[in-house]
Amino acid sequence: MEFTILFLATAIVMLIAWRGQRPLALGLFGAS
Amino acid sequence: MTQARAITLNTLSLYAVALVLAAAYAAQFILHELPCPLCLLQRILFAALAVGPILNIRFGPRPSHYAMSLLAAVAGAVASTRQVLLHIMPGDAGYGSALLGYHYYTWALLGFVAAIVLLAAILLFDRQFEEEKAVLPATGGAFAQTAVWLVIALTAANVMTTLLECGFGACADNPVVYELLKRAA
User: Fold this and answer.
1) Is the alpha carbon torsion for B107, B113, B116, B121 positive or negative?
2) What's the complex ipTM?
3) Residue B155 and residue A2: Cβ atoms within 8 Å?
4) 3-state SS record for B117-181
5) Which pTM value belongs to this model?
6) DSSP 3-state assignment of B99?
7) Which chain A residues are Cβ-neighbours of B50 within 8 angstroms?
């Protein structure tokens, strides 16, 4: 399950990096 | 190196990540070799390598974006080295099948080391960081957009296939069946 969550977190960070705010993407990347 | 050339190289790196994720899927679906927990971790870290280039394409190249990919590459090198060392004893056949004489985790280690070297090399070119952000189209053109969505789609697909493989518990050390499909059958 932990790997599923890590893949999901990576996909969300990618989407935010592409569509959202840069500081949020950097923060989420650091958190995950 | 101009900013436009740096963006092109970042786009190519996204296609390289997509190729790695697609090759991993080929082993999973054509050879029916399910990825082990360490294999999944290496896949995740290959996917994490793509976050830096995506930010570079959208916001222009910055050292912090390359640093993110560099951290992912170092973590990936650690994970793949761990797996190489698990199978380093003489007589150990290794995990899974070999491709051109090397197991996938050995190829992964070579890939992560190559990424570290290439990231350090591209950081040497200062001019890419000095140009105006407004020079670039916000989304980098169709070639770059295709690369970004391809990597995002492959990562999202991995969310589903990993859930199918591992289910809602811990992933098996040596998985041979998809946990959720086994429960459904």
Assistant:
1) negative
2) 0.95
3) no
4) HHHHHHCCCCHHHHCCHHHCCCCCHHHHHHHHHHHHHHHHHHHHHHHHHHCCCCCCCCCCCCHHH
5) 0.92
6) strand
7) 14
